Amino acid sequence: MSRANGSVADAQSIRSAMTSLSVSGFKSIVEERTLEIRPLTLLAGANSSGKSSMMQPLLLMKQTMDAQFDPGPLLLNGPNVKFTSVNQFWPAITPRKASDEFSVKIGITTGADIEFNYQWSKKNKRLQLTSNIYGFQSGRYPLTENTKLDEFIKFLDLEAGHHSVGQLKEYTKLFEMDVRRVGPFLEMGFLPGQDTRDSYPTDFASLTPFSPRNPRFGKIVQSITGAIHLPGLRGNPERVYPVASIGPRFRGTFESYAASMVSSWAMDSPNNVDELSEDLKSLGLTWKVEATPIDDTQVELRVGRLPRPRQGGARDLVNIADVGLGVSQTLPVVVALRAAQPGQLVYIEQPEIHLHPRAQVAMARLLVNAANRGVRVVAETHSSLILLAVQTLVAEGVIEPSLVGLNWFLRDEKDGTTRIQTAELDEAGRFGDWPEDFDEVALEAESRYLSAAESRLSKG
After folding, report:
1. What is the pLDDT of residue 457?
2. How many of the other CB atoms lie within 10 Å of CB of 372?
3. Tens digit of pLDDT for each residue in 229-248?
4. Contact 378, 37 (CB under 8 A)
5. How far is CA 110 from CA 113, 209, 210, 330, 457, in A?
6. pTM, whole model, 2 decimals?
């Protein structure tokens, strides 16, 4: 597979998977809420219960790090999430937390974590990154604009593998070289290399060990920038798609890469295209997909009109714009699940969109297959069929229950703040108490219909 947008080293670094995401002070998530990210993590709950709010801070970080320019501490209006003002994500009700600050903490499989703390500066009229807090088994180390050189060296000696001032000098050179790659999160005052190239300041706030080359924290950077995002609306089907540089890092949202990924597979890994076609066939959408380069800048996607092959099927292929929306909305999801590397996070909003109920059940199998390969799949869903199908696959032994996390988002009726209820599955795919407003809705609707039909027939 072509890796024009990343290296083999990038792919290897992605194997350190994200394990947790904690958010506080953001929209309806006032108090800190933590989401354990398992190989298959399902987010369910009513509309506006906080599911997207939990993931949006991570997407803000991703689009900031992906930016080709320096947008400041956070790029608010980007391809993954769009805000035009910080006021749009401050909590409306803040019982115990100031309304002008929020935090995000990310943990990975190495055991390390980083907490980012942001605050609106009333004096400077801008959002600022006030501190990074680095977490290890030995303790937590806050680095702020007041962090002194000796504290910084102690931190590096303890955890980051630097043991001398000479190594620190080399580190500052590394940092300066990489600052444009990770600089948006390090905008905390001092940047090395201007008036103090041969001397050391007492303020080392910006010299956080955040270089992608750092063996510990570079992996957290990679887990953020390597995330694959598929939004709920994945664009309209197009006659042709622009050629895009592909994998394993995908800037912005993934749907714009799907055609180029299929085209690359057709040239380098035909088996991947065959397996992709089998996935789409299992969903009942089409029996074949192919990508044909039109010229150096455009690719056409063609799919079979029918869900199963037939004799003379080559004449059955049509442009993807000439079939139902289910194909164009689902194809990027299926491609992303196959393209993702072990440890790489794939965040899918509503994988069930435009899918027939039978296809929703089949989609659960594709999510499970990716999780079993080591991909970190986070799916935000309103489909009770997907949840039930995952339970069934656990009961059938297709996936271990410990690899699945079911998370139900609820909003407090009094103040509107978000709570998260997590369910643990047993070997039979069962879980404990679950909020009543999910499967109960289907049962109530069926019961209501049967009662109404019985009543009408009895009157006749």
Report:
1. 87
2. 15
3. 999 999 889 999 999 988 77
4. yes
5. 9, 15, 15, 33, 65
6. 0.84
Residue among 250, 255, 208, 260 nearest 225 (CA)? 250
Q: How far is CA 79 from the centre of its chain?
A: 13
Tokens 């001032």: give the residue. 165
Q: pLDDT (tens digit, 9 = 90+) per residue, 184-223?
A: 333 322 223 233 333 333 333 333 444 434 445 567 778 8
The Cβ of residue 48 has, within 10 Å, a number of other Cβ atoms equal to 14
- How far is 222 from 10, CA to CA, in rounded Å? 7
Residues in the chain: 460
What the block records as the tokens of 175 is: 């940092």
Give the tens place of pLDDT for each residue, 300-343.
999 998 888 776 656 789 999 999 899 999 999 999 999 999 99
Cβ 333 vs Cβ 3: under 8 Å: no
Write down the residue that tokens 């999430």 correspond to. Answer: 81
161 sits in the region (left: phi over 0; alpha: psi -120 to 50; else beta) called left
Peptide bond into 209 cis (omega under 30): no
Q: 127 has which bridge partners? A: 120
CB 34 within 8 A of CB 20: yes
